[in-house]
Amino acid sequence: MYYYLLYFGIARNPFTEEDFNSLLEQARSRNESLDITGKLLHCEGTFIQLLEGKKENVEEVYQSITKDDRLIAIKTITVGAASERYYKDWSMAFKDVTMAEINEIEHCSHHDVATYIKSASAIKLLKLLVVA
Q1: What is the 3-state secondary structure (H, E, C) of 6-48?
Q2: Spatial CA neighbour of 54 closest among 39, 37, 71, 67
Q3: Neighbours of 11 (CB within 10 A)
Q4: CB of 69 within 8 A of CB of 12?
Q5: CA distance linking residue 20 with residue 57, whole number of Å
Q6: Residues of the chain under the 50 pLDDT cut
Q7: For 4, which DSSP code?
Q8: Which of 67, 69, 128, 131 is the most buried (most CB within 10 A)?
Q9: Through-space distance between the first and last CA atoms of the chain, rounded to whole angstroms
Q10: Of 80, 5, 71, 78, residue with least CA distance to 37
Q11: pTM of the model
């Protein structure tokens, strides 16, 4: 059994390409050492991330994320157990998406990511991570 945690966080400042590269290098290294897999989406300064692995390892990583001063807000969306991983081959898959792409995938017309997240269920966000 695997544990998963889905959350969203809001960046304090806009991320540059260098910021993304640094974040992903750090996350992939740490996740690989803890046998954590997952995916990170970024849209308009908001991150949506799924972490999966052993519960204690996922919670350790999440606790460090909650203390990251690059984020001004963070909220757990859902946690649970799964019989298999969604991202078994990825220490951290990543995609930077636009709101237009999300609207197209979801067949909706939200003006910004904050509005979308407020109305989206955990299942909808999990599906977005898979499709995007």
Answers
A1: EEEEEECCCCCHHHHHHHHHHHHHHHHHHCCEEEEEEECCEEE
A2: 37
A3: 17
A4: yes
A5: 23
A6: none
A7: E
A8: 128
A9: 25
A10: 5
A11: 0.92
What is the model's pLDDT at position 41? 95
Rg (CA), the chain: 14
> What are the distances in angstroms from CA 131 to CA 19, 41, 49, 65?
25, 11, 14, 24
Here the tokens at position 13 are 């400042």
Q: Are 84 and 21 in contact (CB under 8 A)?
A: no
Total residue length of the chain: 132
Residue 28 gets the label, from left (phi > 0), alpha (psi -120 to 50) or beta, of alpha
Runs of H (alpha helix) within 67-121: 99-106, 113-119
- What values do phi and psi take at 28, rounded to 5? -65, -40
Bridge partners (DSSP) listed for residue 39: 50, 93
Quick one: DSSP state of residue 79? Answer: E
